[in-house]
Structure formats: structure tokens, C-alpha cells
Amino acid sequence: MTTGCSLLRLKRKFKVSLLSLLTLCLLLLINFKYSLIPASLLLPVFMNGSPAFDKYDINCLAIYDMDPVEVGKSLIIRKKHVMKDTDKSLINLMADCPSFIQFRGYDNVCVSEEEKDFPIAYSLVVHKSAWMVERLLRAVYSPSNIYCIHYDQKSSAEFISAMGGLTHCLPNVFIASKRESVFYASISRLKADLNCLSDLLRSEVKWEYVINLCGQDFPLRSNIELVSELKMLKGMNMLETIQPTPSKKERFTFHHELRDTNFEYQKLPVKTEQKKTPPPHGIQMFTGNAYFVLSRKFVAHMDTSIVVKDFLAWSEDTYSPDEHFWATIVRLPGVPGEVPRSQSDITDLMSKTRLVKWQYLEESLYPPCSGDHVRSVCIYGAGELRWLLNYGHWFANKFDPKVDPILIQCLEEKLQERQKLFQSVATCG
């Protein structure tokens, strides 16, 4: 019996090994064939004779179905791809707003009556890669929505000019009236969103929900799908809120000072030995992440609440306050859409807001990253297209055209297909 089982396992192992070998051989053949990106695969996009960004002759349906030949082509493109999408090229394109709007399809977005009656607000906190910001904006764009862009005061002059061009060409996009110099894990990152939220509350658009995003996020749902999902929240908020671990508690138990560092972020909050006083008003602490889906009533309440203002001031000298601020105040008794303190943890996988793939959880919770990693976070590759679209989340992070331009191109194509599908059943105004 043991010998029989061993032989069966050996046969299975041999079959798996043979399949892996055949797949490897196929990819090597593709690698040889496409060792340089042929002109037939590269489809540069031009407007008025000026280069915009590169597109590739790739079959996204085959990528979605994990066809080895097409996935192999995407790997070669990724290997040979040279990023040419500069902030300056976007600025040049937006010099002629009508042509830019037509070229990028902002004038051809279906808006159903349901979407008109349920506008969404966005807070976009960004600092680099103007084309990626524009592609994110285009992917979530609807004329019925309102978009606040907060750029980092430390951003390059060309990036800031490009953000200004977007607001000049698109009437429902504006720059935050107050802007921060954003430093990693400091209060400035939280204040950037708060500045946008304050402006959005005072805009003429009576949005129902607000969603915050960064420049390396991308949607996995079309606008009309998001409207349908948001309606089902029935006034509740959606974000991660969990009991803090001992290591997370140190972030707000001790005083932190913003100090210069050789690290890429220039300055970082550094822990001191000075203990902080307990949170004001007897607030019970929870942790989560910086990203949320919040109702207008919740934001309006937060904007006028003395308790929230005191808690914000108390959080000034903590590490990464955006990762406890929202998670804690959504648990405050009496806030609109309150999550009771007695309710169990809502993890980032339970909340549909934003899908992040952590390297240390790959193989156990997620399939392996097919792109690259930065600080233990996966920058997605084309091999994750199907997984991303079917996991159930509304947005995901991180995306970077320098790592994999094919995935972003295919996500854009898939979202446009969904838009057209809904256009066929919705009456567009």
C-alpha cells in the first residue's frame, strides 16, 4: 500500500515537473522570439503629433485567461519597456484642453440617472508620476463626481504644473486649497486628506460618499458599479478597524519627533523614550490603514466634533497617525455609521476598500506577486489581472507602469468594457 502511494505521488510529481518544464521551455522560446520589442507590438499613442504614452499590441483577454504565450509576451515587454511618459508630455497635451478631453475620452463617459443622483467624491493625495495620476483619474472619472487633488508641496515644478493642467481642463477637478509638505508616517499625510475633505464638504456637489486614493492605486470597478455598491452600505462607512498589536501600540504610546534621515523620505518620525498621556476623552484606540470609504454625514460630523479635533491634536506626535485615526474615530459612540467598540475586528481583507498584497502573506493568503516588491508590498504584474478583478475589492495598490505597463493597460481595457456593458442597459444623460 505504501509503495503504491509512493508511486502515485511520484507520477503526480513527474507530471507537475513535466508541465513546469514545458511551460519554462515555452517562455524561453517566447523570450528568444521577442528579445527586443518588435515595432508590431509597440503602439505609441499620439495627440496632435506629440507622443503621449506607449500602448502595446497585447490580448488582454488572453492575459486574463493566463494564456502562456500572451503572458510570456507581457514578461518580455515588461523586461524591455523603457518609461517615456514624462510630466512634460502631459503638460504639453493639456495645453489644448478640448483636444485633450476628446483624446482621453473624458467627453464620452456614460452617466446614468443613478450616477447623477449619487455623486462620489475623491481625495487624491499624490506627489509624482503625472501620467499615472491622470490614468487613475480617467479610470474613476465621471462628470457627476467631484475630485480633490492634494499634491505634495515638495513635488517637482513640472508635476505641480501637470496637476494644475488637469484642474484647468476638467471642471469637476480642483487642487486642495491648503497643501502640506508630506513626510512618510507623519501627521502631514493625514492632514493632506483632511484638507481635501474640508474642501469637498464645502463644494457645490452634494456627494454621498468620499474615497481617498494615492497615485499608485487603481480601480477594479467602474463608476456605476461603485455607485451600486455604495448604496448597499446604507450610510455605513467602510474601512479597516482592528485591535492594536503590542508593536502598533508603541506608535501612539510614545512621543515621536520628526527628524532628518538618510532614508528616501528625507524625514521620519522617530520614537523617543517620552511616554504620551492617554488619548483624550477616554478614547479607545484601534488601528487600520490610511484608506477609507466614508459617508458625507460622517465627514460632516467629524469636521465639527471637538472630540475629533482634540484627538487629532493628540495624534500630532505619533507614528503614522493615519493608521489609527480613521480606525479609531469610526468606533466613537454616536458617530454616523458607527462601528461599535464591541464589534469584532474588520480587517483589510474584510473591507472592500483597497486590496494590498503583503509579501509575508503570499502563498498563505495570496498567490505570489508576479511583479515586484517595495517595502514588502507587491507592485502587481499582469499575471494577477484575473485575481485582482475577481477578489471582490474596489481598488488595489500598488501599480507602476515602470514595473508592468501591461497590467495597467489591461485594467483600463477591462474597465472600459464594463462601462460599455452598463452603457447598453443604462440611459445616459
Write the layout of secondary structure elements.
Layout: H1 2-33, E1 42-47, E2 50-56, H2 60-64, H3 68-80, H4 87-93, H5 97-104, H6 113-116, E3 120-126, H7 130-139, E4 146-151, H8 157-169, E5 173-175, H9 187-201, E6 209-214, E7 217-219, H10 223-231, H11 246-253, E8 254-260, E9 267-275, E10 293-295, H12 296-304, H13 306-314, H14 322-329, E11 354-356, E12 372-374, E13 377-379, H15 385-391, E14 395-397, H16 405-423
Parallel strand pairs: 3-4, 3-6, 4-5, 11-14
Antiparallel strand pairs: 1-2, 6-10, 7-14, 8-9, 12-13
In short:
Keywords: Glycoprotein, Glycosyltransferase, Membrane, Signal-anchor, Transferase, Transmembrane, Transmembrane helix. The protein is of the alpha/beta class and 429 residues long. The chain is built from 16 helices and 14 strands.
Note down, in words, how this protein is organized.
There is one protein chain. The protein is an alpha/beta fold and 429 residues long. It has two domains: 1-33; 38-54 and 85-354, Spore Coat Polysaccharide Biosynthesis Protein SpsA, Chain A. The chain has 16 helices and 14 strands. Strands 5-4-3-6-10 form a five-stranded mixed β-sheet, sandwiched between helices. It has a three-stranded mixed β-sheet with strand order 7-14-11, with helices on one face. A two-stranded antiparallel ribbon has the order 1-2. Helix 8 (157-169) links the parallel strand 4 and strand 5. Helix 1 packs across helix 3 and helix 4 runs parallel beside helix 8. The radius of gyration is 23 Å and the shape is globular. The protein starts with a helix and ends in a 6-residue tail after the last helix. Pathway: Protein modification; protein glycosylation. It is found in: Golgi apparatus membrane. Belongs to the glycosyltransferase 14 family.
